[in-house]
Amino acid sequence: MPQVRELMTESPRTVAPEASAVDAATVMRDEDTGVVPIVEGDGRLAGVVTDRDIALRVVAEGREARSTTVAEIASQDLATIDPQQDVDEALRLMAEHQVRRLPVVEEDGRLVGILAQADVARHLDASRTGEVVEQISE
Questions:
Q1: Are the C-beta atoms of 43 and 76 separated by less than 8 Å?
Q2: By the 8 A CB rule, do 49 and 73 touch?
Q3: Whole-angstrom distance, CA of residue 4 vs CA of residue 6
Q4: How far apart are the C-alpha atoms of 101 and 9, rounded to whole Å?
Q5: Residues contacting residue 54 through CB under 8 Å, at least 6 positions apart
Q6: 72-100 pLDDT, tens per residue?
Q7: Could you give the CA distance from residue 70 to residue 90 in angstroms, rounded to a whole number?
Q8: How far apart are CA 109 and CA 122, in angstroms?
């Protein structure tokens, strides 16, 4: 089984904690993704903001998207993985935490990539991919 670093998307676009929900949504649109990592100035992962966070914590609550910061709405209780970990461990974490994407961080907390369910699916056989999708979606 390959290591996470072999399959991850390296150096994903990020936003700072003070970025607005509009800034994050613009990155999502431009990068065709549903998640944007939030990083501090030193590159450490502070959280992630998802399209769902914006929909539920901004739009559904009637908040002003330009003045709501991603730090206010972000998912902060994160499952992350080290780039040297085995992809099997990533799959276990995705299933356990019911997430489709894992931030990949070094020991010092610095973000180096994102591993998405789609990245893994492209490298596994179809039956294994089906099992993983089923576990994540439970």
A1: no
A2: yes
A3: 5
A4: 11
A5: 21, 24, 25, 65, 73
A6: 999 868 999 999 999 989 989 998 998 88
A7: 26
A8: 27
Whether 127 has a pLDDT exceeding 80, the answer reads no
pLDDT at 4 over 70: yes
Contact 134, 126 (CB under 8 A): no
Which amino acid appears at position 23 of this protein?
Answer: D
Of the candidates 108, 23, 31, which has an alpha carbon nearest to the alpha carbon of residue 67?
A: 23
Residue 46 sits at φ, ψ, to 5 deg, of -105, -20
Higher pLDDT, 137 or 37: 37
Token reading at 103: 């931030």
DSSP secondary structure letter of residue 46: E
Kindly report the pTM of this predicted structure. 0.87
